[in-house]
Specification:
homodimer, two-stranded antiparallel sheet, 523 residues, Rna Polymerase Sigma Factor, Chain: A, 8-stranded mixed sheet, alpha/beta, Rossmann fold
C-alpha cells in the first residue's frame, strides 16, 4: 500500500514536469523572441561548484525553442479557428503544392477490415494521354514523397524525380502520360490519419485503420478507373514504390503492361522491420505525439520524435563507405571541445536531415505507412490470408450485417493489440519453418507462387550492392522468384560498389545507371 | 509581438503537459496497483464514434506504468534518504555484485582537460599472480559491461565471458592471472557520472568531464601500479574492449607483452558514430533525462530513452541474415490484428532487449562512454593533438596556476559547445583530405605512424564478416597498418559468413572460432 502523502506527491509530480524542462536561457528566449541559443548560464539550476564545468546542450535548447515557437503560433491562431487547413495554425499544411484530387464517395474496404467511407487520392500528371489510352505510366512513390515527382505549371518546384522525367528523359513525357499519386495513408492530399473522419468531423488520428500496400494500390486503380485507363503501359517505382509497383502487377495483372521495381522487395525482411520499428517507437515515445492526437492547438506536432525518427532513417538511406569518403572523422568545428550534442560532421549531417523534415510530414502518416511496409509480403500464403479476411469483412461495405458479424470481424477488436504474454527469449537456433531466405536450392516456393500472375510480364528489377535497407539479395530474390515461375522476360540489374556507394538513395541520385536502365527497358 | 493572453496561455501550456499523458486505463492501474495493462477503453479521451475503432497502445501503457511504479518507489524512499546507494531508491544500484575497488587519491587529468580529483576503479581477478608478476592478463570490456567477466566466490553469477575464462579455457586461469575492470565513466563501481563529485558532495551528472578511451586506460594502469604489475603478459578485449586493448599497447608499449583485439577498430568510423549518435539523441530527448540530473527522488531515471537507445544498439549487434533465419516474417501472435506497438517477432525481440536493459545501466554513463568511443582515433595526429592539450592542462593537477591559464585551457569553455553556425549542406563530393579509408595503395599513413609503437608486439586481430557495427574492413585496417609499420607478428583472423552470422555479438557467442583463436595466440 502506497502511503497517502506519497500518492499526493506522485500526483503532483505527474502534473508538474514540462515535456522539456525550461532552462534559464530559454526564459531569455521567451523575452527576447530570439532562438539564437548559444550558452547555458553556469548557474544553470544551481549546479555550479563542481570539479568541472556543467556541459551545455545547444541541441536541446533548439528543440525547446521550437516547441515554444510552435506553441506561440498555435495560441495565436487558436482563438479564431481550429481548422487544420489554416496556414496560421501550428500544424503545417503538408501539401507540397497544387495537385489534382480524385474524390471517391464509394467506400474502400481495407485488407485488415478497416473502412474508409470515402477517400481522396491526390495526383499529378505529365505528358498527354493518347487517344487509345495506352501510354499511361503509373509512378509510385517512396514512403514520404508527395505526388510531385516533377515540376509543372501548377507547381513549378522541382519534384522528387525531376531529372528522371521529361521530354527525352528516362521517363519520356513526349511519349508517355505519367501519373503519380500520394499514397493513401500519406499527408500530401490523399486520405490519411490527418484527414477528417466523415463520421464525426474530427481528424482520424490513430482511429485511422491499419492499411497495406495492397490497399494503397486499390485506391490508385480507382483513380485509373476514373481516368478511363484500362491498362497501364507500365508501373514504375523505387523503394516503397518498387514494392507498390510489383504489387500493382500482382493485384491487377491484366491492367499492367510492364513493371519496373527499383531497390524494392517482394516482402519486408526483419532488418528493415527493425529499423522502422525503432523509428516508430522513438516517435511514439515523444510526449507530444499524445497517442496520435496532436492536431488541435495548443498542441504541437511531435517535432522531436519526428526529427529523431528521420535521423535513424537517414542512416539506412546511405552507406558506410560513402560516409567514410565524405565525412571521415571530421568534426564540425575542430577548435571546439567535444560535446554530447552533434559534434562530428556525420552528426550534424544527421541532425540537419532531421531538422529539415520534422515538420514536413505528418507523424501519424509515418507510423501507418511505415507499418504498411512491414506488413508487405507478396507470398501466396499472405495473399490467401488477406483474401479470407476481406471476404469476412465484405459486409461492411455491402451495408448488410451478417448474423454473426460481431464474432467474425477479424482484426478489429480494439483490445486485442497486446504484447505477447511472455517476453521474447533468446532461442538456440531457428527452426527450419522460420527460415525463409532464398536458399541455394532456389527462391522460396511461397513467393514463386505469389508472383505467378506475373509469369509473362516484362519486368525490370534493379538493386544496389551498397543498399543496407533493401539489400541486393532482396532484388535477386524477386528476379529469381519470377524466373522460377516461368517468366523469361526479367531484366535484373545489380549496381556494384564500383557503380554506386549511395546505398538506398541511389535511385534518387544516379541518373546514369538507374536512368539508362529504366529508359532502355521502357523502349 | 505576442498578445498578452497568448503568453498567459503559453505559460499555462508549458506547465501543464505531463511527460506521458495519463490514460484512463492508467488511472485504473494506480488504484489496483497492477501493471497488467491490456486495454484502452473505447471512450479513451472521448474519441469514440469514428469510422473505425481507436488503436490501443499497450507498449506505451507499459512505459507509463513503469514511470508510475518508479515514482512511487522513489517517493516511498525519499522521505528518509537521498542516498544513491540505497537499494530502496528509484535509482537502481548498478553494480552487478561484489567486486574489489582501487581508490586513487591522486587526481587524474583527462585528455580534454577535465580532472577527476580522485577516482575508483572497480575490478575483479581470477587465477593467481605468479611470484615474477609476469602472468597478468588485462581484460577490457565492451561499452556497458561490468568487471564481472566470470563467476567467482564473491559473486557466483555467470560473467559476460563466462565460457571463455577458467581452467583450461581459452583464457586459462591455471596459467594466467586475469584482471577485468569496469571502465572509468561506467556505473559498475568505477568513477563515472553517477558518482559523487568530491568538491560538493553531489553526483557529477553532466558536470562529469568528457573522457577518452585513453583516459580509461590510464586509470587501468594506475590499478596495475597498485597491484605491482610492471608488465602485462597480454592485453585482451572485444568491441570497445578491442579498442582499449590496442590503446593499452600504444600508450604503454613497454608494459604490454602481447595484444588481442577482437571486433574492434583503430578509429571510429562515421557509420558507427551515426548509430551511437542516434542512441544518444534519443536518450537525451527523454524528458526524464533532465539534462543528466535525474538522481534525486522523486525523479526517476530515463528508462524510456534508455530502452529506445538499447533497441537501436541491438540492431547493430547482430546481422540481417541471422534475423532472417531466426525470425523471418513471423509475427508474435498471428491471430492478432497488426499493431503499431511491437507486433513482428523481431520487434518483440528488440523490445525485450530494451526492457531488460533500461534500468541496468546508468544513462549518463552510456552518453559519456559512447562519446568516448566516437572520439577514438589511434592516428598520430590525434595523439599529438591530445598530448598538446594535456600539456596545457597539466597545471590543473600540479596545483600551480600558470600566468595565462584562463586563456590556455582548451576544451573547457562551457559556452563553446555550439552547433555549427550553418546547418550541414549536401556537398557534391568529398575532398581528398576527408577520405581516410584504407585505399588500394595501403593503410592510412596517419594510422601506420600512430601504431608504430607496436612494431614488435605479437598481435591477434580478429574480425567478423557479418559485423555491421565494426565491419571487417576495420580489423583489416588495423592488421595492415601494423604490418606496414614493420610488425611481422600480426595474426589476422576474419570469420566469414559461413563461420558466423552473429555479427558484432560473435565474440560473446562463438567459443569455437573466437575462443580457439585466442587460446592458440596466448600459448
Amino acid at each position: 500500500m502506497v502511503p497517502r502523502h506519497a500518492l499526493q506527491l506522485l500526483h503532483r509530480a505527474a502534473r508538474s514536469p514540462t515535456p522539456f524542462p525550461l532552462s534559464p536561457s530559454l526564459n531569455r528566449i521567451r523575452i527576447s523572441h530570439s532562438i539564437n541559443v548559444r550558452c547555458i548560464s553556469s548557474t544553470h539550476s544551481g549546479r555550479s561548484g563542481g570539479s568541472n564545468p556543467q556541459m551545455s546542450f545547444p541541441c536541446l535548447d533548439a528543440l525547446e525553442a521550437r516547441t515554444l515557437s510552435l506553441q506561440s503560433r498555435a495560441l495565436a491562431s487558436s482563438t479564431s479557428s481550429t481548422n487544420l487547413s489554416s496556414s496560421s495554425g501550428p500544424e503545417p499544411t503538408y501539401t507540397t503544392g497544387a495537385h489534382q484530387a480524385f474524390n471517391s464517395i464509394d467506400p474502400l474496404l481495407l485488407d485488415y477490415g478497416g473502412v474508409l467511407p470515402k477517400f481522396t487520392i491526390a495526383y499529378e500528371t505529365w505528358g498527354t494521354l493518347n487517344p487509345e489510352r495506352s501510354n499511361a505510366i503509373l509512378l509510385h512513390t517512396g514512403l514520404s514523397a508527395s505526388s510531385h515527382a516533377h515540376s509543372n505549371e501548377a507547381n513549378p518546384k522541382p519534384g522528387w524525380w525531376e531529372r528522371f522525367i521529361g521530354p527525352r528523359k528516362p521517363i519520356d513525357t513526349d511519349r508517355f502520360f505519367v501519373i503519380c499519386t500520394n499514397v493513401l495513408g500519406g499527408c500530401y492530399g490523399s486520405t490519411g490519419p490527418s484527414s477528417i473522419d466523415p463520421s464525426d468531423g474530427l481528424p482520424y488520428a490513430t482511429r485511422f485503420p491499419i492499411l497495406t500496400l495492397q490497399d494503397m494500390v486499390r485506391g490508385q486503380f480507382r483513380l485509373l478507373d476514373y481516368l478511363g485507363i484500362t491498362k497501364l503501359y507500365a508501373s514504375v517505382g523505387s523503394s516503397m514504390g518498387g514494392m507498390l509497383s510489383l504489387c500493382s502487377g500482382v493485384l491487377y495483372p491484366s491492367r499492367v503492361g510492364r513493371i519496373v521495381s527499383i531497390s524494392g522487395c517482394a516482402r519486408s525482411h526483419p532488418y528493415s522491420i527493425a529499423m522502422r520499428h525503432t523509428q516508430r517507437q522513438v516517435l511514439m515515445a515523444d510526449p507530444a505525439w499524445n497517442r496520435g492526437f496532436y492536431y488541435s492547438p495548443p498542441q504541437v506536432p511531435p517535432h522531436t520524435g519526428m526529427k529523431l525518427a528521420r535521423e535513424i532513417a537517414t542512416i539506412t538511406y546511405r552507406s558506410g563507405p560513402e560516409w567514410e569518403q565524405r565525412f571521415g572523422r571530421q568534426r564540425a568545428d575542430e577548435s571546439k571541445a567535444p560535446a554530447l550534442c552533434p559534434d562530428f560532421l556525420i552528426e550534424t549531417y544527421l541532425d540537419h536531415a532531421g531538422e529539415k523534415w520534422c515538420l514536413e510530414y505528418d507523424a501519424n502518416s509515418l507510423l501507418y505507412v511505415s507499418k504498411a511496409m512491414d506488413l508487405f509480403d507478396l507470398g501466396a500464403k499472405n495473399a490467401a490470408d488477406r483474401e479470407a479476411i476481406r471476404a469476412k469483412n465484405q459486409w461492411k461495405i455491402d451495408s448488410t450485417l451478417p448474423e454473426d458479424a460481431s464474432s467474425t470481424i477479424e482484426g478489429q477488436d480494439e483490445c486485442t493489440l497486446t504484447l505477447p504474454p511472455k517476453p521474447y527469449k533468446e532461442q538456440p537456433r531457428a527452426s527450419s519453418t522460420v527460415a525463409q531466405a532464398a536458399s541455394p536450392s532456389g527462391p522460396p516456393e511461397d513467393l514463386v507462387r505469389g508472383l505467378s500472375a506475373l509469369a509473362n510480364h516484362p519486368t525490370l528489377i534493379l538493386g544496389v550492392a551498397s543498399d543496407i535497407l533493401f539489400p541486393a539479395w532482396q532484388q535477386r530474390e524477386i528476379a529469381e522468384s519470377l524466373r522460377a515461375g516461368g517468366n523469361r522476360v526479367v531484366t535484373h540489374v545489380e549496381l556494384g560498389e564500383d557503380k554506386s556507394l549511395f546505398g538506398h538513395d541511389t535511385f534518387l541520385l544516379d541518373l546514369v545507371n538507374v536512368g539508362c536502365a529504366v529508359e532502355r527497358f521502357l523502349e
